[in-house]
Amino acid sequence: MIKKNAKINLAIICGGPSSEHEVSLASAKSVISNLDQKKYNILLIVIDRQGKWLLGPRGEEYLTANTKVKTIANQLAKEESQSLINISSKELTNFQEGDLGGQKIDLVLPIGHGQYIEDGKLQGMLDMLGIPYVFSGTLTSALAMNKHLTKIIAQAAGLTICLEQILKSNDQVDLDKIITDLGLPVVIKPVELGSSVGISIPKNKADLEVALANSFKLTNTIMVEKYVKGRELTCAVLGNDQPQTLPVVEIIPKVSEFFDYKAKYEVGGSEEICPANIPEAIRNQVQKQAIKIFQALGCSDLARADFIWDEKNNQLYFLEINTIPGMTQTSLVPQEAKVQGLEFPQFLDTLITEALKRYNKE
C-alpha cells in the first residue's frame, strides 16, 4: 500500500529484442516526458536488442543515443536529478529488496510492443517476482499476441472475423487451395508479430508465393486471411470493473495500401480521424464489440481493438487487439483520450491509478 501523498516508485521498462524496438523507445520517451515528476519517482529500464537490461543512467544513455530527441535531460529539464533514480544495482530483483533508496518498486509501466514485452513473457517474470504492473496479465497478453487464438475467442464472444488459413514453415503449401478457399487478394500476417511487421496483400499467385516466403523469414507461423475491402476503425477500452470505450478512430493510410509499419510511423503516413465520421449504429457496434473482446480475453487497464468495416455490405469484422498500444502523443490511443478530454499526462495518471486500484483489490 502506498502512503497517501507519497510519490509512486514507477519503473518504466522498454525496448526488447523484437522488430518493434525503435517504436518502444519512442513510446517510452514520450511517456517519460509527460509524466508528472511531482507524483512519480521514475526508474528507467531499457532492454537492448541483445536482451541486456540497462538500468537507470545506462538506460537513459541508451534511450538518448537511439532516439531522435537530443536528450532525455532536455525533456525532464531541472526535474531530472530528482525524478530519475540514480542506481547501480545489477538486477531487477534487488529493487524488491530495498535498493531503490530503501523503497520497493510500486508499479512497472511496460512500454513495449510485440515479442518479449507485450506477449506475456515480461508479465510472467513480473508475476513471479511479485511486482505489480500496468496492462494485461500473462495469459491475456500471450493470447492477444497470437492473432489466430484471439480470433477464436472473438468469434466465441459473438464477433465476426475474416476467414483464414494457418500455415507452418514446414507445411506443404498448396497455393491453389489457398486461392480457391480464400480468393485473391489475401492478407498475409505473421501470427505473433505486431506493428504490421511482415504483413502484405498479394494480388496474384506469383506474389502470394513471394509473400509467404518473405513472411516465413520472420516467423514460423503465418495467417493467410481473406481480404475484406473496407474502412479501418479502431477503438480503445479503458478501465477494469466497468471499462469504458474512448472515441472510435478511422485510419486512412496515405503512403501505403493499408495501415502497415510505414503508414503507422512515417510522418504523414496516415490520416487519423477522431471521432470517426461513421454512422452512429456502426460507432455503437465498434464500441460494444471492443468491450466484448476486452472482457472475453480478460484484458486489464487498457487495450485497443482494431476492425475493418465493409461499408458496401455493412459488415464489421474484428481484426486484432493490442494490449500495449503505442504511447507517443500522436499515437492512436492518446489521440482518442485527448478527444475524450484527457490530456496525455492526465491519461497516464488514469492508467497508473487504475492499475494500482486493481492490485489493491487482490
Strand content: 15-25%
CATH homologous superfamily descriptor of the largest domain = ATP-grasp fold, B domain
Helix content: 25-40%
**How many E-type strands?**
13
Largest sheet features: 6 strands, antiparallel
Explain how this protein is built.
The chain has helices at 21-34, 57-65, 72-76, 80-83, 92-95, 121-129, 138-145, 147-156, 175-182, 205-216, 261-265, 280-297, 332-339, 344-361; strands at residues 8-15, 40-47, 53-55, 107-111, 164-168, 186-190, 221-226, 231-238, 244-245, 249-253, 270-273, 302-310, 315-322. It is an alpha+beta fold. It has three domains: 8-133, Rossmann fold (3-Layer(aba) Sandwich); 144-161 and 229-345, D-amino Acid Aminotransferase, Chain A, domain 1, CATH 3.30.470; 164-226, 2-Layer Sandwich (Dna Ligase, domain 1). The strands form three sheets. Strands 8, 9, 10, 11, 12 and 13 form a six-stranded antiparallel beta sheet that branches. Strand 12 (302-310) and strand 13 (315-322) form a beta hairpin. The longest helix has 18 residues, at 280-297.
